[in-house]
Amino acid sequence: MIETPYLLFLGDAPDQLAAKVAIGIRDWRPENALGQIRLPGCGADLGLTDMTLAEAKAAGAKTLVIGVANRGGVISQAWKKVLIEALEMGYDIASGLHNLLRDEGDLVAAAQTHGGTLHDVRVPTVGYPIANGVKRTGKRCLAVGTDCSVGKMYTAMAMDAEMQKRGMKSTFRATGQTGILITGHGVPLDAVIADFMAGSIEYLTPDNDEDHWDLIEGQGSLFHVSYSGVTMALIHGGQPDALILCHEPTRTHMRGLPGYSLPSLEDLRDTALAMARVANPACQVVGISVNTQHLNEEDAKAYLAKVEAQMGLPTVDPYRHGAGRLVDALAAI
Amino acid sequence: MIETPYLLFLGDAPDQLAAKVAIGIRDWRPENALGQIRLPGCGADLGLTDMTLAEAKAAGAKTLVIGVANRGGVISQAWKKVLIEALEMGYDIASGLHNLLRDEGDLVAAAQTHGGTLHDVRVPTVGYPIANGVKRTGKRCLAVGTDCSVGKMYTAMAMDAEMQKRGMKSTFRATGQTGILITGHGVPLDAVIADFMAGSIEYLTPDNDEDHWDLIEGQGSLFHVSYSGVTMALIHGGQPDALILCHEPTRTHMRGLPGYSLPSLEDLRDTALAMARVANPACQVVGISVNTQHLNEEDAKAYLAKVEAQMGLPTVDPYRHGAGRLVDALAAI
């Protein structure tokens, strides 16, 4: 668990895109985002109050979250100065960077001296069990994609937000570093040891109230040869009651794999459902989430209508039109 | 790479079953097994020459291989005495034990002093790449199972041995600790970090001659919820040209999962083949390997004939009747 609220460190982010993690926190957990802190030349702006470390501390900030990618994979001296000062003031620091805070001697020393915690959210800190497949109480929904990076996290986040708004019981369950930083907890599944992948998802989505839904963040794709094993572990460890199919209609090939075309939504439905029913025979595919960011409004609507007719399932772009119909579908099962 | 030949350490194995790893080495790589060394009270006997460390060293042994499970997960003082003496004499030591040689200070010290290597084959020592899915030259065969522990390693080993006998080009590719100790190299797949699983199998089975076959050791099962992700990574990283279906007909439920029944061979065929064709559209299911150890000869023959008629594929128990027909089927594609 990462302590909230956060002060969001944007460093010297060249542009808004580099601050993706911070934007996610601001959009999905605004109550966690007290303010932002930027270095000279920073090209990103979350529209939050710019605060010094001292101001944010006085306002109650517990953790400085690195909400930006670093250039060249190096934690620069300019960053270090802020991070060490933060530790000296009693902050914890949380990071999803590839290079780890814990590998920086000066940060480790400052954290030890001042009693702060360094959260490297890419690295598992729990000894996960091997999955036992025992049926758990409560309900679970998993987003599965025709490809990587087609909007699975966004879909689960948007559904969770809609369910909260309706007063339904739900929890977004993060399985990647962005989701973990946004919510403060989760499993960094891509860094878990092979034998414990499914078990880590059982751990993440324990017994719950019968009317509670876990919205599990998907990873990879059963059809992406680099990461399909991770996806499979999510399907079997998550033992979902409901699947949402996620798709990006303008992809010409699988992400990072020029020789590989995308599966059809029918192939995804049939394959993922058959695999999910091994762990949960009652599993159903309840809806389709399409990322239409590269289509204009008219084309997007036409595409969604076509897929809805073809697949016989509610089909929406939750970013454009909200996740309401997907939540309706969940509520109906 | 573990240096051969080996002296096989049986320690105080309570019985023959505890010496499974050593038996595998003796059976599959007899040329690597110079002799055995046993402690008082050892209940296992490989039928190899009992040798002292000095005798085996004089005969050319390079590595002392721990061919036995230890009791209670502790490396006892009685074992330590032999292991340290071996290091002092210039041996390397190889182990697939859960508790690692490298975590034993006295072994590490002796290895450093005398220049020996401690091989803990459960732990990856290579920084594997992320899989790129690029088609590789040469051919690959993967054994996939209806369940864990149904004879996938045995099947691949037996096929490799048969192919060697026929003068075909083949290599057994180990993906678990027993296979790695037997052959001296491989990937301990169940200990690889999730993101690199498929990449580790690409690394293990690189470009090769067009008429060369890798016989890849299978792991887990697509239908075993604890380990299905590992199996999926093998299917996509291995990009097999041929699949062998493996089955044990007397299992009443999935291994370790009392609530889970086994899939049919048809389900395994259809699911594994569809997934394999994502990475290699030319993949075929070529044969079936049945572990009939719990059936008498008559029942085994009847069962094999029934499955062969039902599935339309050569169906054998390679332990009872040899792997010849499976190799015939491979050679025909």
From TrEMBL, chains A, B:
Domain D-glutamate N-acetyltransferase-like N-terminal per the UniProt entry, residue ranges: 46-124
Gene3D superfamilies assigned: NAD(P)-binding Rossmann-like Domain (3.40.50.720), P-loop containing nucleotide triphosphate hydrolases (3.40.50.300)
Pfam families cross-referenced by the UniProt entry: DUF1611, DUF1611_N
Domain D-glutamate N-acetyltransferase-like C-terminal: 130-327
InterPro entries: DgcN-like, DgcN-like_C, DgcN-like_N, P-loop_NTPase
UniProt cross-references to NCBIfam families, sorted A to Z: DgcN
Identification of the protein by name: EBNA-1 nuclear protein
Lineage summary: Bacteria, Pseudomonadati, Pseudomonadota, Alphaproteobacteria, Rhodobacterales
